[in-house]
Design brief:
Helix content: under 10%
CATH superfamily of one domain: Copper type II, ascorbate-dependent monooxygenase, N-terminal domain
CATH topology of one domain: Jelly Rolls
Shape: globular
Number of helices: 7
CATH architecture of one domain: Sandwich
Largest sheet: 12 strands, mixed
CATH class of one domain: Mainly Beta
Oligomer: single chain
């Protein structure tokens, strides 16, 4: 039933939880947050896994009604809402509602929110609430590992009326565990790795700079926290992501000869550059990744990232400047918290997903287009030690059309529970997520990264690529036991896709950062985007063919080793031809790639028994 506003006050006063424990107090909440800029609406929450419920403690600077709800998109459409408070006679009240697609407020036939405690003191209302993780109620949202928005509002009186500016949303993964800083973290040393580069007036810039650790660190320490540094809202709006890499010289080379002079070097384009000064191939031990909307990482208490044995680091920053504004300059980077008290495990980081140089295409106006990328058993057998690695956190990464992400895990002909899942993914909220349970990956396992896109917001084809208007499909894996690899990726051979749109071959143009057709001659010189947007008729059959090819074609899998082997000859290292002191070191070829070799693998392993999560809901 639709509840008219004038009737709501009477209803709220009448619907009171029968099992209310007034002034009940719940302690040990795992996370807390002020939800508004005025610090009037305070929320704490915790997951009670034994009773399979989420507990909320709400404290709001009002003597009126208090509302809190769960929404997929942060709006009042199809939301799950509870309204509660303490009435004028001191009695608590609560009602469980939902809204339809027109934002009409409807009373739930099944009241699933419980009021455990309520108190109004000195103009502040405090409520303790609980809700089952899965109510098995079609009017409610099951709380899963997917992203949710907590929507909130409050009134100045118990008369329910439009909430004016007393409302908002807060995005959160409610079921994710919350890691807190170590008690000694505030007193530990910190190192800020940042740059204040003048952002070029072009859409996409990947900028690399070299940094040296603080003086006096001459033995192994552990990094236990990473925190992004973004100077202001301009920085937040123009830094799409950045990566921190550790640099390592070959065994017989003095790292000062290679890196020291680059510490004062202002930096350069990381990839779209034919005249490199920075030996990027020697800075391929991944440490930390920040992306839009992300937050810091607190490493589990038994793990730390090795720090101090290698003095040089590289910061790679993706600046997104679609308006091509001239004169942008701000500080961006990461602050590390480190300790000389070593923990039991060393940490490591690597990427799983679609090869960054590989091609995929999302046809125009596609509401639900899937791609997959594989890290097969041959790569994991080479990459992962016999005892395996334990994944403790993961971060999904797409650009603006990404809507769903999932990291599949196969072993012994069976799909195990997903390592990472978000079927309500928001590319503007790319936070690193601690796993509920650490996941062990063994040599011989198969990992598949799947992404789903919706580009109905644009009238063009969306290709894979480096620009924010292009797409990616990646997951950053944080784990125990470092491995000398930073990526395990797959891609469909590009000729498989190109021939479907009448193209034989393309090349990459460094200036435009676009794929340019080289064959057939009739299309030579045109960008691939020009072909797919203006010359291709996107029939239902072509769309279906590309969709099928994208998820079922064999892929080329690669997992190149990234740290220089101890026996690597110094002369095989590409560096700038400058010396340290009176010495000079230079060489003509890059460090060789040691890998199982690019190889083909079947697509998604459908022959495996697939994992399916079962809801424990009674049959109706």
């Amino acid at each position: 039933m639709i509840i008219p506003n004038y009737f709501l006050f009477l209803l709220l006063a009448a619907v009171t939880a029968a099992d209310v424990v007034v002034d009940g107090v719940l302690k040990n909440y795992s996370d807390k947050q002020f939800l508004d800029f005025k610090n009037r609406y305070f929320l704490e929450w915790n997951v009670d896994w034994i009773r399979k419920q989420v507990l909320f403690n709400v404290s709001v600077a009002t003597s009126g009604w208090v509302g809190i709800g769960l929404s997929k998109d942060g709006t009042m459409k199809n939301a799950d809402i509870v309204i509660a408070g303490v009435s004028f006679n001191g009695k608590p009240y609560i009602s469980d509602f939902h809204t339809d697609c027109d934002r009409n407020l409807l009373l739930d036939a099944k009241q699933d929110w419980r009021l455990l405690g309520a108190r109004e003191t000195l103009g502040r209302t405090s409520l303790q609430l609980s809700r089952p993780i899965d109510t098995c109620d079609s009017d409610d949202h099951p709380i899963t590992e997917d992203l949710l928005s907590i929507i909130w509002a409050y009134g100045e009186t118990d008369q329910l009326e439009y909430h004016n500016d007393n409302r908002g949303r807060f995005r959160v993964y409610l079921l994710d565990p919350v890691l807190h800083p170590a008690p000694t973290a505030k007193s530990l040393p910190r190192w800020k790795v940042s740059t204040k580069t003048k952002v070029p007036p072009k859409e996409t810039t990947y900028w690399c700079t070299i940094h040296k650790i603080p003086p006096g660190i001459n033995r192994k320490h552990h990094i236990i926290e990473f925190h992004p540094v973004l100077e202001n809202e301009v920085a937040v709006g123009h830094v799409h992501h950045f990566l921190l890499w550790r640099c390592q010289a070959p065994k017989n080379a003095d790292p000062r000869l290679i890196f020291e002079h680059l510490v004062s070097y202002p930096g350069e384009e990381c990839y779209f550059n034919d005249n490199h000064q920075i030996p990027i191939n020697l800075c391929r031990t991944m440490m930390y990744v920040y992306a839009v909307g992300g937050q810091g990482i607190i490493v589990p208490g038994d793990t730390g990232y090795p720090f101090g044995e290698f003095p040089y680091y590289m910061l790679e920053t993706h600046y997104n400047n679609p308006e091509k504004i001239n004169g942008l300059q701000f500080e961006a980077g990461v602050e590390l918290v480190y300790t000389n008290r070593l923990r039991s495990n060393d940490g490591g980081t690597f990427l799983v997903g679609y090869d960054l140089l590989g091609l995929f295409m999302v046809p125009p106006a596609s509401p639900n287009f899937d791609i997959q990328s594989h890290c097969d058993n041959r790569c994991t057998s080479e990459m992962i030690p016999a005892r395996g690695i334990e994944i403790f956190a993961a971060q999904g990464h797409t650009h603006g059309s990404g809507r769903k992400m999932k990291l599949h895990h196969f072993r012994g002909g069976k799909e195990l529970p997903w390592i990472y899942k978000d079927e309500n993914y928001d590319w503007t909220f790319q936070t690193t997520r601690p796993l509920q349970t650490e996941r062990k990956v063994l040599p011989g396992d198969h990992l598949t990264m799947s992404c789903s896109y919706d580009n109905t917001w644009t009238n063009t084809t969306t290709p894979s690529g480096f620009a924010s208007r292009d797409e990616m499909c990646l997951t950053t894996i944080y784990h125990k036991t470092p491995i000398p690899y930073y990526t395990c990726s797959g891609q469909i051979p590009q000729e498989t896709l190109l021939r479907l749109v009448g193209v034989q071959d393309v090349t990459w143009d460094q200036i435009t950062q676009r794929r340019v057709v080289t064959s057939p001659p009739a299309l030579s010189g045109k960008t691939l985007a020009e072909i797919t947007d203006r010359r291709v008729f996107w029939s239902k059959q072509l769309r279906a063919t590309i969709a099928a090819v994208t998820v079922s074609s064999p892929q080329v899998i690669a997992c190149p080793i990234t740290t220089p082997p101890e026996d690597e000859p110094v002369e095989n290292v590409v560096i700038l031809a400058r010396g340290y002191g009176d010495q000079t070191l230079m060489g003509p070829t890059p460090v060789p790639v040691r890998t199982p070799g690019p190889h083909s693998v079947s697509g998604f392993p459908y022959s495996n028994k697939l994992y399916a999560r079962v809801r424990n809901c009674p049959a109706h």
